[in-house]
Q: What sequence folds into this?
């Protein structure tokens, strides 16, 4: 199907099904119940899941295939966001031109940075990309304020000179991003008993784009181009000896992954028209590295899992406070309740960084291949369970 | 001229902090082959050793003073440090005043202990794992360490003053024949510079002139062969990790009076110190130290008004700009060896 | 499936209407039954408190949260009612807001505009908050204010000091109780003249981002009006931790005053460094060298320790004020938490009470009705004396405190002493003042 073999096609179908049904899957707990805190099925977070998924998929094309660890990928995301917001300010609130411009500009940016940085390899390459990204961040925050609006971030205002469209709506508000009239924020709400499911136009646009991006990534992984990139990772020297110049291939991979990042940035700006400089900071670059490694670098699905994992913690755990805890454990006797809340207190709310740090360590220590390996182990364990059961049936003496 | 001398002083001082952290990072990388993202956190813990020393010395018991009122109108609780009671108010005050230098006594054992535990408990299992895994696990550890500090000490910076004897600044200008007040430099920063130079010298001497150091250097060059010779290199590497942690910790403890310590100061230094290490060349100790001082001096020059007015914002990016230029002209940094961390 | 209750009320009408180029603001939810975003229908109403819980301002955020929690208790009729007793408007009855019990959700801004918006969005989309408050930097405040405008909820800004929040980036749904850079400068200038004379040469170190620039411009304008000279203005990178190379040249520049337009960690470090260099013990042009920190906060004062002694700056509020509102607030806050509140806590508490009161007076949670009730509202008893919420830019006008680092602290909480209370009239400016021009409030947005 689509030129994929059966295994990849079924992976794509599973991912497609999961993204399309995400509003249900992520909202397993009824509204108003104490576990509703863990629901992630609201538009903003779902959008973030898929957007950071795209970012991580793109990063994985570079890192997972060629082994080049870029520590400045957030710069492309930031550049993409800025270009998209400028498109909204100057041209139209339609997201299509904004996303296209975001991809093109970040692609150009990636050509320049990639061309320079790829002259070195290993950690020297990482530091070069880091240096470029940090320079972009520092300049965007201060000197380039006329273009980036610095600290406050680039936003849409009431007096933007929009060529195709109006500066203000008839009610005197700021127009919203849309795709041919369908607003990104419009949401269809479905009440099923105590459950509330939200189907957001912006989310489905992002999800569709992510599926395309995922499909393209699979094709790249399985293509001769992808094989060449893997050869770069396993032994670049040998590749050079065969008379092949690896540089154009790695540069191509770098630019493609930069364009993925730009696409993610453009989508972020389309969902929420704001572009802030801290999107380019090294911590943001580090985050996508973490997502990819945590999920499983070099695997197809890993980066998406990693992105979901980190964003979930950031958005859900940071919002749990002591009040919520007391709500959960209110059925216990007072002393016990306070005790349990006291124990959990350092790990929630303001302590969500601590929880995330501990989880990082646990995953890396026990699952060297990331979350994907965790999944494989569970699958194997279940298989073995079955196998041993069947062997027990046939061979009761053992 | 005087401005240039002043900025060189500044640069050397800044550079000494960079050089100390980069030295420890390189020690760990060179001996163990591990990229330690938690090194900034070790620096931060060192600074908090100074804070803790200060707290320990000022441990007090509270007495209600009915003549004074607190902000709610209740009787004021007056705190008297135990130490003033035991040693008399004057000795007590002097001890508290000297908390930061005294904290060295606390920092060394604490940091060596942390270093041992870290190496035996965690890092040891990562020697054979890819660098990416090492980065991730030590980064996770860095977050955990700084969150623990935040939990106990809060997020706000904690003032940790230097002893009164080192308050104020020294007038170099008069010494060199300039007008008064043209080249002044704080005493404590001079102390810090001297301290850094001493530590760097000690580490080099230790590696150069002791048998232990010789074995470690041999291990850095070829770990397997040294192991085959029947030398227990693992134990030595553990000790080296402890020493590297102590170097970072001491750098942090003495840094506390320069800038009030806060829980994320390690992260602030982390990226910078990696740039320093890489610019110096992976695995090269002299390279790390040289790059530290060089970047410190260049950063100071970039903050001069004359240069800022030529290129606005140059001080924001100078370190990265220099890193790019050096890495493009010298493929492996200033003194890097071929083949180290190039895959 | 017999219990399922599929409703059709949420059918997208946008597609049809937007086709005509008249996009109805369907804000986040296209369901047409509600009159405005997140109209509370049950017995409770949810407020969203979005403060930094990680990163350098985490302690300030924590103090804001304490104040919010206290305010919610008082609104629900628990505790001693604090400033609700001294507040000039008596609309609040201690039975929640409009009889609905007040509940709240908290989030982490991380002091990043992106993260702050993500957190605020989750409060609006998931928790159905009708009002968002909090924040501890202007970048975050402006970003979240923009979001609330688009979403159709009210934003009651926490600690934000940049002129832009109610200047070029003002929004109809956003309100600021805290003072701003212009007011700081206007309040400081006469005191500086009194303390240091009118023949001074100032050297500015300025954080290189929007807030720093507005702060510096305001102070420069105000001091030059006194006759001061401005020797130099040097921009410092935000990420800077060691300011020695910026401070070293100050003494030789001919300046006799150093103005540190820094906040938070920047300010703690630059002040510590400046004192380390011994600037305060020097004599230049025959005068004592002085350091000024235009915006003070208790936590910064604590971080800078003894270096803060005698350094002049401005504050929105201080717990040592002696009016009835302050006393009531300090009492209930102090009894609950064991230490006096910071100015960030006070502004957050006041904002929550002001919002609740406006809803009560308007008789509706509709953001447009609430905004109307707040616009031009004059009140007293919330710790700042007589205060007005100006209609034109949604900025509160009230007295500003000029403070000085305490020379002989009486207790660990006694960090600053009040030098002067500059009256409201002196810090009031025209809404079209050039430092605030360039923005429009726009129309209030009720959302759905």
A:
């Amino acid at each position: 199907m689509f030129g994929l073999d059966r295994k990849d096609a079924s992976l794509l179908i599973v991912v497609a099904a999961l993204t399309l049904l995400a509003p249900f899957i992520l909202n397993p707990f009824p509204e108003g119940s104490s576990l509703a805190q863990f629901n992630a099925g609201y538009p903003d977070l779902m959008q973030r899941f898929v957007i950071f998924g795209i970012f991580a998929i793109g990063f994985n094309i570079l890192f997972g295939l060629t082994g080049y660890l870029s520590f400045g990928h957030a710069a492309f995301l930031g550049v993409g966001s800025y270009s998209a917001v400028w498109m909204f300010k100057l041209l139209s609130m339609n997201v299509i031109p904004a996303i296209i411009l975001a991809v093109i500009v970040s692609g150009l940016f990636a050509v320049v940075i990639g061309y320079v940085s790829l002259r070195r390899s290993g950690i020297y390459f990482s530091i070069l990309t880091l240096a470029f990204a940090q320079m972009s961040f520092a300049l965007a925050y201060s000197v380039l304020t006329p273009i980036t609006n610095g600290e406050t971030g680039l936003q849409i205002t009431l007096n933007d000179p929009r060529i195709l469209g109006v500066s203000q709506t008839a009610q005197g508000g700021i127009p919203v991003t849309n795709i041919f009239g369908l607003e990104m924020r419009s949401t269809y709400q479905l009440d099923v008993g105590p459950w509330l499911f939200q189907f957001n136009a912006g989310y489905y646009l992002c999800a569709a784009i992510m599926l395309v991006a995922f499909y393209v990534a699979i094709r790249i992984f399985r293509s001769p181009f992808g094989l060449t990139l893997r050869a770069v990772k396993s032994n670049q020297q040998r590749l050079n000896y065969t008379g092949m110049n690896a540089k154009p291939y790695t540069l191509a991979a770098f630019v493609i992954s930069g364009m993925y990042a730009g696409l993610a940035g453009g989508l972020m700006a389309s969902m929420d028209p704001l572009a802030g400089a801290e999107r380019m900071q090294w911590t943001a670059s580090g985050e996508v590295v973490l997502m990819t490694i945590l999920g499983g670098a070099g695997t197809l699905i890993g980066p998406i899992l990693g992105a979901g994992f980190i964003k979930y913690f950031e958005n859900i755990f940071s919002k749990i406070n002591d009040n919520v805890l007391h709500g959960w454990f209110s059925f216990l006797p007072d002393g016990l309740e306070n005790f349990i809340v006291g124990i959990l207190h350092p790990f929630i709310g303001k302590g969500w960084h601590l929880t995330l740090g501990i989880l990082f360590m646990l995953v890396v220590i026990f699952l060297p291949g990331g979350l994907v390996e965790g999944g494989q182990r569970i699958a194997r364990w279940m298989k073995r369970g079955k196998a041993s059961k069947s062997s027990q049936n046939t061979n009761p003496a053992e | 001229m005087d401005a240039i001398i002043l900025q060189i002083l500044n640069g050397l001082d800044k550079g000494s902090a960079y050089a100390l952290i980069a030295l420890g990072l390189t020690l760990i990388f060179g001996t163990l082959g591990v990229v330690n993202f938690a090194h900034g956190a070790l620096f931060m813990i060192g600074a908090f050793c100074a804070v803790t020393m200060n707290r320990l010395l000022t441990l007090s018991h509270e007495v209600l003073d009915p003549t004074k009122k607190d902000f709610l109108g209740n009787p004021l609780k007056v705190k008297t440090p135990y130490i003033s009671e035991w040693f008399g108010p004057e000795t007590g005050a002097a001890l508290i005043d000297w908390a930061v230098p005294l904290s060295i006594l606390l920092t060394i054992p604490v940091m060596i202990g942390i270093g041992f535990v870290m190496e035996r408990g965690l890092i040891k299992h990562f020697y054979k794992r890819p660098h990416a895994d090492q980065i991730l696990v030590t980064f996770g550890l860095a977050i955990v360490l700084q969150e623990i500090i935040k939990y106990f000490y809060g997020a706000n910076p904690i003032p940790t003053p230097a002893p009164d004897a080192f308050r104020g600044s020294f007038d170099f200008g008069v010494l060199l024949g300039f007008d008064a007040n043209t080249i002044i430099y704080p005493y404590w920063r001079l102390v810090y510079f001297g301290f850094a130079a001493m530590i760097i010298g000690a580490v080099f001497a230790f590696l150069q002139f002791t048998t232990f150091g010789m074995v470690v250097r041999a291990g850095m060059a070829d770990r397997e062969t040294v192991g085959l010779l029947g030398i227990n290199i693992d134990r030595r590497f553990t000790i080296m990790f402890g020493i590297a942690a102590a170097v970072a910790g001491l750098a942090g403890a003495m840094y506390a009076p320069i800038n009030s310590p806060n829980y994320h100061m390690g992260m602030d230094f982390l990226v910078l110190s990696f740039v320093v290490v890489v610019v110096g060349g992976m695995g090269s100790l002299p390279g790390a130290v040289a790059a530290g001082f060089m970047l410190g001096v260049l950063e100071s020059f970039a903050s001069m008004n004359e240069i800022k007015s030529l290129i606005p914002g140059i001080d924001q990016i100078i370190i990265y700009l220099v890193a790019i230029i050096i890495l493009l002209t010298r493929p492996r940094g200033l003194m890097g060896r071929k083949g180290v961390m190039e895959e | 499936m017999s219990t399922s209750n599929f409703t059709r009320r949420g059918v997208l009408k946008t597609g049809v209407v937007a086709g005509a180029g008249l996009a109805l603001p369907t804000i986040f939810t296209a369901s047409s039954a509600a009159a405005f975003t997140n109209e509370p229908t049950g017995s409770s109403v949810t407020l969203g408190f979005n403060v930094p819980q990680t990163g350098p301002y985490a302690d300030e955020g924590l103090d804001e949260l304490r104040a919010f929690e206290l305010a919610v208790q008082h609104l629900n009729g628990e505790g001693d009612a604090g400033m609700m007793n001294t507040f000039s408007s008596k609309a609040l009855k201690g039975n929640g807001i409009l009889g609905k019990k007040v509940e709240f959700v908290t989030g982490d801004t991380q002091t990043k505009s992106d993260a702050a918006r993500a957190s605020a969005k989750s409060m609006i989309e998931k928790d159905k908050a009708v009002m968002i408050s909090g924040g501890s930097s202007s970048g975050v405040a402006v970003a979240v204010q923009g979001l609330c405008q688009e979403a159709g909820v009210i934003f009651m800004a926490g600690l934000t000091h940049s002129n832009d929040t109610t200047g070029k980036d003002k929004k109809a749904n956003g309100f600021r109780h805290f003072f701003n850079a212009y007011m700081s400068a206007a309040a400081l200038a006469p005191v500086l003249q009194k303390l240091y004379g009118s023949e001074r040469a100032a050297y500015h170190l300025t954080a290189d981002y929007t807030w720093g620039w507005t702060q510096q411009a305001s102070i420069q304008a105000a001091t030059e009006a006194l006759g001061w000279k401005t020797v130099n203005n040097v921009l410092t990178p935000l990420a800077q931790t060691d300011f020695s190379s910026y401070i070293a040249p100050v003494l030789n520049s001919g300046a006799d005053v150093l103005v540190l337009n820094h906040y938070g960690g920047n300010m703690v470090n630059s002040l510590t460094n400046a004192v380390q260099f011994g600037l305060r013990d020097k004599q230049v042009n025959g005068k004592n060298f002085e350091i000024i920190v235009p915006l003070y906060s208790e936590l910064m004062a604590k971080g800078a320790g003894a270096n803060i002694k005698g350094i002049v700056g401005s504050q929105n509020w201080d717990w040592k004020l002696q009016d009835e509102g302050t006393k009531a607030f300090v009492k209930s806050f102090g009894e609950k938490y064991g230490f006096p509140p910071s100015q960030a806590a006070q502004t957050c508490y006041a904002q929550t009470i002001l919002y609740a009161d406006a809803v009560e007076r308007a008789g509706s949670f509709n953001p447009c009705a609430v905004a109307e009730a707040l616009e031009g509202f004059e009140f007293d008893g919330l710790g700042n004396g007589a205060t007005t919420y100006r209609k034109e830019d949604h900025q509160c006008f009230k007295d500003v405190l000029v403070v000085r680092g305490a020379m002989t602290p009486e207790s660990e909480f006694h960090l600053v002493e009040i030098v002067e209370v500059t009256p409201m009239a002196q810090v009031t400016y025209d809404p079209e003042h050039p430092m605030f021009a360039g923005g429009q409030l726009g129309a209030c947005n009720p959302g759905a």
Notes: The longest strand of chain B covers residues 60-69.
